[in-house]
Design a protein that fits this description.
The structure is a single chain. The radius of gyration is 22 Å and the shape is elongated. Helix 1 crosses helix 4, helix 2 packs across helix 3 and helix 4 packs across helix 13. The protein is of the alpha/beta class. The protein has a domain of 102 residues: D-Maltodextrin-Binding Protein, domain 2, CATH 3.40.190.10. The chain contains 13 helices and eleven strands.
C-alpha cells in the first residue's frame, strides 16, 4: 500500500523545483520533506530523485509521479460522488504543459467557461510545442498541449488543429535588409527572432524556402516580447496569425514573403485513466479548438 504523504512530497519537490518551496507548499519544514523523500526511497529500494538544481525524477520516480497525477484526478471523481469526503472544499488544480503561443492567443478563450463551470484551478507549465511532452513523460503534468502526435505510455492524444504562423517584420526592417524587395538568399543574413534553443520553427521555414538552418538570431523566451521585438525592427519572426492580425492591419508589421504561412499541428495529450475531469476537458477542447485553430 502506498503512503500518499510520501508521494505528495515527491510531487511537490518536482512541481516546485526544489525542497524549500515544496516545504512551503506542504506546510512542513524542509527537513521533514527530505525525510519523506528518504523514506520513500527506502521503501522502493532505489532513488526517486536526481539531486540537482532543479531536482528531476529517476525512472521509478517518473512512474510514481504519473501515478500521483492520475490518483489526484480519480479522487476528485470520488469526492463528487461522495461529497462528505471533500473535507477542505478546495477546487482541483490541474497541472498542464502548453506552448507559450497558445497561452498568448487562444487558450484562455477556449477553456475559460469550462474552468469557471467546473471550478478548476490551472497550474500551467510553459514549454515549446516541440518539447512539452517531456513534462508529461516525467510525470510532472496531467496533460500536455504540444506538437508531437505520439502519446507516452498510458496516455492518449487528440489532434486539435494547427496554429498558423506568418513570417513578419517591420517596414523599417524590410527597408534596411531588403531595400530592393524581398530576396530569399538574403534572409539568412537578416537577423531573426527565435523563442528559445528548442524552437526550430524558423529552421523549418527557411528549409521550406530552400535555405539551410544557419542564420543569425535573437533569443526571446516570451511570446509578448517576441512580438514587441519584431515590431521594433530588431528581427523578422514567425508570429501566430491570431496574434498578428492587429499589427498587420495597422501596418506595424508586414509579411516578408507574401502568402507563405507555416502551420504547426497541436495535439492534446491526456492520461488514459485521468478521471472524469480530464475526460470532460478533453471533450471541451475537441469542440472549442476548431474556432481558433486551422484544420490539419
Amino acid at each position: 500500500m502506498f503512503d500518499y504523504k510520501l508521494l505528495a512530497a515527491l510531487a511537490a519537490v518536482i512541481e516546485q523545483g526544489g525542497f524549500e518551496r515544496a516545504a512551503q507548499v506542504l506546510g512542513l519544514s524542509q527537513s521533514a520533506v527530505s525525510q519523506r523523500i528518504k523514506l520513500l526511497e527506502a521503501r522502493v529500494g532505489q532513488p526517486v530523485l536526481v539531486r540537482a538544481t532543479p531536482p528531476s525524477p529517476t525512472e521509478v520516480g517518473r512512474q510514481l509521479l504519473n501515478h500521483v497525477q492520475q490518483v489526484r484526478l480519480l479522487e476528485r471523481d470520488l469526492q463528487r460522488q461522495v461529497p462528505a469526503l471533500d473535507e477542505q472544499g478546495i477546487p482541483e488544480r490541474l497541472r498542464i504543459a502548453l506552448n507559450a503561443d497558445s497561452l498568448a492567443t487562444w487558450w484562455a478563450g477556449a477553456v475559460g467557461d469550462f474552468c469557471a463551470g467546473q471550478q478548476v484551478l490551472l497550474d500551467l507549465v510553459v514549454e515549446d510545442q516541440d518539447v512539452g511532452l517531456r513534462r508529461m513523460r516525467a510525470g510532472e503534468v496531467a496533460a500536455c498541449l504540444c506538437g508531437s502526435e505520439r502519446p507516452v505510455a498510458g496516455a492518449r492524444s487528440l489532434a486539435l488543429g494547427a496554429m498558423r504562423y506568418r513570417a513578419l517584420a517591420s517596414p523599417a526592417f524590410m527597408a534596411r535588409y531588403f531595400p530592393r524587395g524581398f530576396e530569399v538568399a538574403r534572409l539568412a543574413r537578416a537577423p531573426a527572432v527565435v523563442y528559445g534553443p528548442d524552437d526550430f520553427l524558423q529552421h523549418r521555414y527557411l528549409a521550406s524556402l530552400g535555405l539551410g538552418d544557419g542564420f543569425i538570431h535573437h533569443l526571446c523566451p516570451s511570446s509578448e516580447g517576441f512580438l514587441r521585438l519584431t515590431e521594433a525592427g530588431l528581427g523578422w519572426g514567425l508570429v501566430p496569425e491570431l496574434q498578428a492580425r492587429e499589427p498587420l492591419a495597422s501596418g506595424q508589421l508586414v509579411e516578408i514573403c507574401s502568402d507563405t504561412p507555416i502551420d504547426v499541428p497541436l495535439y492534446w495529450h491526456h492520461w488514459r485513466n485521468g478521471g472524469q475531469l480530464l475526460g470532460d476537458l478533453t471533450e471541451h477542447l475537441r469542440q472549442a479548438a476548431p474556432a481558433w485553430l486551422v484544420p490539419l
